[in-house]
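hey
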């Protein structure tokens, strides 16, 4: 099958611990489970999956995709970097690939420090609070965006 589009699913610090980490907040699925489900749910999409605990590596991956070309969008769960990384915000601003910010939990219904995202303003949209489904909704948002673009 020829892929309609290529999407990078980018995860930041602590998301490697999904499944074990605070399951009452983040659910029992591992990141591998979530990534597998995405691949199964969207067979027409070619995915690249990347997770890192390091801020700089997240930035490098974004730039790599931008320079390589061929990516129509990024679904990004930046973890705690969401709340304070101006470097990540600047990196998202610096690339032309649309980035959708996603969170498993509803960051607006949690501690005060999680209620502000420094990256939302430079992302095309935010999906927060739907568990693993937030990633699926992020992919759908990118698909809808691409189909709305003039040829
Ligand atoms: C998170 C929310 C962040 O506040 C937190 O630091 C995470 C996960 C989420 O997916 O709900 O690591 O991004």
């Amino acid at each position: 099958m020829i892929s309609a589009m290529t999407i990078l699913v980018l995860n930041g610090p602590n998301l490697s611990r999904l499944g074990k980490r605070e399951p009452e907040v983040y659910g029992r699925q591992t990141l591998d489970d979530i990534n597998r489900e995405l691949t199964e749910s969207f067979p027409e999409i070619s995915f690249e999956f990347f997770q890192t605990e390091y801020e700089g590596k997240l930035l490098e991956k974004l730039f790599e995709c931008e320079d390589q070309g061929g990516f129509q969008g990024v679904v990004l769960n930046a973890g705690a970097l969401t709340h304070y990384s101006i470097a990540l915000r600047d990196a998202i601003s610096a690339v032309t690939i649309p980035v959708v910010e996603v969170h498993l939990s509803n960051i607006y219904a949690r501690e005060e420090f999680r209620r502000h995202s420094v990256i939302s303003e430079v992302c095309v949209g935010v999906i927060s609070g739907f568990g693993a489904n937030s990633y699926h909704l992020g992919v759908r948002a990118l698909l809808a965006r691409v189909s709305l673009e003039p040829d």
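The helical segments are 23-26, 31-41, 55-68, 86-94, 133-148. Residues 14, 77, 79-80, 82, 103-105, 107, 114 surround DQA (CB under 6 Å).
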